[in-house]
């Protein structure tokens, strides 16, 4: 009985300490996304917007759908519209498989900085039929263009191979997407594009950029910001783990002790 009482007192003390620290800790708030700079589309007549500029990530988040819509200025010759949605930059390490004896192992790591955590491009036809290769690269319509190498590549490897490997891995995770015939064009220059945001997408400020091309030349651009933010218990736990790791550790220890204590009581009664 004394051991049980001592364990119960320890659990209660740990829970009280965690609850007190939580009460004193400041409430974490989602960062307000920076306002995009004045777009060239305002003067040219290109208009674009998103249906939801805030997407909440909760404990049961299973993905979302981002819809971008708008209108081009010239009704008779609307041109070619390209919609690009990009997530915040993140460091990513890519390795290649090399045979070591009878085994294939991941070797020769190469690090990238500012690689888009999410990248989706939607158009009515393939990009190579809309813009030049140079424009595709300079505008960041190719996800590999934004990834910046921060480490040296092996002497027997081509850096472009690692860039292609980065794109291939992110596409397999559903984080890099390309829909060359996904843009819907309607009479009067209206357009709509939809992108599936997977459940493993990184929260943060996303940017939706709309490009208008005519005869292979960029005519106008328009932008919108989308905030993917954790909310509710998901945000509280994440903020606690990132900003108060000591408190988070005490909370997990208290939770584990409580679970063990409850399990011990159940098994003793049975």
From the helix content, strand content and strand pairing, which structural class follows? alpha+beta
Order of helices and strands: HHEEEEEEEHEHEEEEEHH
- What is the count of DSSP helices, taking H or I runs of 4+ residues? 6
Helix-residue proportion: 25-40%
Q: What's the domain count?
A: 2
Taking pLDDT < 50 over at least 5 consecutive residues as the criterion, the unreliable ranges are 13-39
User: What is the strand tally?
Assistant: 13
Lateral arrangement of strands in the main beta sheet:
2-13-12-4-7-9
Instruction: Report the CATH architecture of the largest domain.
Output: Sandwich
Give an account of the 3D structure.
This protein is an alpha+beta fold and 270 residues long. Helices cover 31% and strands 36% of the residues. The chain folds into 2 domains: 2-25 and 244-269; 41-232, Macroglobulin (MG2) domain (Immunoglobulin-like), CATH 2.60.40.1930. It contains 6 helices and 13 strands. The strands form 3 sheets. The protein has a 6-stranded mixed beta sheet with strand order 2-13-12-4-7-9. A 4-stranded antiparallel beta sheet has the order 1-3-11-10, with no helix packed on it. β12 and β13 form a beta hairpin. α1 (2-24) runs antiparallel to α6 (245-269) and α5 packs across α6. Mean pLDDT is 78; it is low at 13-39.
